[in-house]
Design brief:
Protein name: Histidinol-phosphate aminotransferase
CATH class of the largest domain: Alpha Beta
Family: Belongs to the class-II pyridoxal-phosphate-dependent aminotransferase family. Histidinol-phosphate aminotransferase subfamily.
Low-confidence stretches: none
CATH superfamily of the largest domain: Type I PLP-dependent aspartate aminotransferase-like (Major domain)
Structural class: alpha/beta
Catalytic activity: L-histidinol phosphate + 2-oxoglutarate = 3-(imidazol-4-yl)-2-oxopropyl phosphate + L-glutamate
Largest sheet: 7 strands, mixed
Order of helices and strands: HHEHEHEHEHEHEEEHHHEEHEEEH
Mean pLDDT: 94
Distance between the termini: 54 Å
Strand order of the largest sheet: 2-8-7-6-5-3-4
Cofactor: pyridoxal 5'-phosphate
CATH architecture of the largest domain: 3-Layer(aba) Sandwich
InterPro entries: Aminotrans_II_pyridoxalP_BS, Aminotransferase_I/II_large, HisP_aminotrans, PyrdxlP-dep_Trfase, PyrdxlP-dep_Trfase_major, PyrdxlP-dep_Trfase_small
Oligomer: single chain
Strand content: 15-25%
C-alpha cells in the first residue's frame, strides 16, 4: 500500500499527537486538554437526516460569543480542519507556499505537505517573536502565513504591533492566519477587532480548550465574508454532526458561557500556582504562559520527562532543547506534578 500512496504522502512523517505517543498513568498533562468533564444531554434525534453544512444556531451562537457577524464565522471539525481548508482553498500545489515560524504548532506544515504545498520556515526570534524582516524576505509565492498566539508550545503572546505590521506587509499578497486556539485564556489579546480593517486576516478558534470539549471536535474560522465564501467552496457537505451542534450550542448558552468563564479563571489560577512553585526550583526556567500550559526548561529536561513518564505523570516533550510542556490540570494534578519535579531536581542537585 505504501507504494500506491502519492509520493508526497510517502515522504510524510505524521504529526505525533499526544494520543499517538500514548503513555500510561494517572496524571495526564500532555495534550492541553481541560480537566473538567462537563455533562451534556442530547436527544440523538434526527440522526437519519444529514446535518446542515453550517448550522444557523451554532454560527449565530459563536458569532455572539466572539462579537463578530454571523457571516464572518465558519464552523468545522476542530481548528485543524480550518487549517486544512485554508491551505486547500488558497494554495495551488506545486506553485504556492505557506510560511510559519517555529517553534510552533506542527499541523501547519503537515496540512501543506499533504497536498504538495511548499513550506517556508522563518524561525522566531530569540524571545519567540516574529522576525518581520525574515518573513518579508521570504514572501515570494506565499499565500498563507500562520501565526499562533498564545503560541504552542512556548505559551507567549505575539506582539500586537508586529501582527499589525505583518498584516500590512502581506496586504494584497497573502493571508495572515492567526491561530487563537488558546485565546479564551487571555481574550484581551484577540485580533478579532482587526477584521474590520484587514481583508487578509483569518482567525482560528476552537471549543477544545477553554470549553472542555476536545472530544467534540468543533472549531471555527473567523474572517470577512469574501474569505469565508471561498472556504465554503471546499468544505465537506456535512462537516458538523447534529449532536456536535446540539452540545456546542449548550456550551455557548448563557449558562455554558458562565461555566466556561469560571473554569478558565480556575485554570489560570492553577497556571499561576504552577509557575510560582516551579520558578522557585533551582536550575529551572519557567516561561510565562498565556494559555492552559507552561513551558519549562532545565538541564537534562529529557531525563526529567522520561522520569515523570515512568512514574505515571504524562507530560509533553518539546523540540526545544531541554524543554517540557505541562498542561494545566486541576489543583491536585498540578500539585502532584510540581512536587514530583521539585523532588527529582532536588535529588539531582543534592
Amino acid at each position: 500500500m505504501e507504494k500506491l500512496a502519492r509520493k508526497q504522502v510517502q515522504k510524510l512523517t505524521p504529526y505525533l499527537s499526544a494520543r499517538r505517543i500514548g503513555g500510561s498513568g494517572d496524571v495526564w498533562l500532555n495534550a492541553n486538554e481541560s480537566p473538567f468533564n462537563n455533562q451534556y444531554q442530547t436527544s440523538f434525534e434526527r440522526l437519519n437526516r444529514y446535518s446542515s453544512c453550517q448550522p444557523k444556531e451554532l454560527i449565530e451562537a459563536y458569532a455572539s460569543y466572539a462579537d463578530v457577524e454571523p457571516e464572518q464565522v465558519l464552523t468545522s471539525r476542530g481548528a485543524d480542519e480550518g487549517i486544512e481548508l485554508l491551505v486547500r482553498a488558497f494554495c495551488e500545489p506545486g506553485e504556492d507556499a505557506i510560511l510559519y515560524c517555529p517553534p510552533t504548532y506542527g499541523m501547519y506544515s503537515i496540512s501543506a505537505e499533504t497536498i504538495g504545498i511548499e513550506t517556508k520556515i522563518v524561525p522566531s526570534t530569540s524571545d519567540w517573536q516574529l522576525d518581520l524582516d525574515g518573513i518579508e524576505a521570504n514572501l515570494e509565492n506565499v499565500k498563507l502565513v500562520f501565526v499562533c498566539s498564545p503560541n504552542n508550545p512556548t505559551g507567549n503572546l505575539i506582539k500586537r504591533e508586529d501582527i499589525v505590521a505583518l498584516l500590512e506587509i502581506t496586504k494584497d499578497r497573502a493571508i495572515v492566519v492567526m491561530d487563537e486556539a488558546y485565546i479564551d485564556f487571555c481574550p484581551e489579546a484577540s485580533t478579532k477587532d482587526l477584521l474590520a480593517e484587514y481583508e487578509n486576516l483569518a482567525i482560528l478558534r476552537t471549543l477544545s480548550k477553554a470549553f472542555a470539549l476536545a472530544g467534540l471536535r468543533c472549531g471555527f474560522t473567523l474572517a470577512n465574508k469574501p474569505l469565508i465564501d471561498v472556504l465554503l467552496k471546499v468544505i465537506a457537505p456535512y462537516p458538523v454532526p447534529i449532536p456536535v451542534t446540539d452540545i456546542a450550542c449548550q456550551a455557548l448558552s448563557e449558562a455554558g458561557l458562565s461555566r466556561a468563564k469560571e473554569q478558565v479563571s480556575e485554570l489560570n489560577r492553577n497556571r499561576d500556582y504552577l509557575e510560582q512553585v516551579l520558578s522557585s526550583i533551582e536550575g529551572m526556567t519557567v516561561y510565562q504562559g498565556w494559555g492552559n500550559y507552561l513551558l519549562i526548561q532545565c538541564s537534562e529536561g529529557d531525563a526529567l520527562f522520561k522520569s515523570a513518564w515512568d512514574n505515571g505523570i504524562i507530560l509533553r516533550n518539546s523540540p526545544i532543547k531541554d524543554c517540557i510542556r505541562i498542561s494545566v490540570g486541576n489543583r491536585e494534578e498540578c500539585e502532584v506534578t510540581a512536587n514530583f519535579i521539585k523532588k527529582q531536581l532536588d535529588e539531582r542537585t543534592a
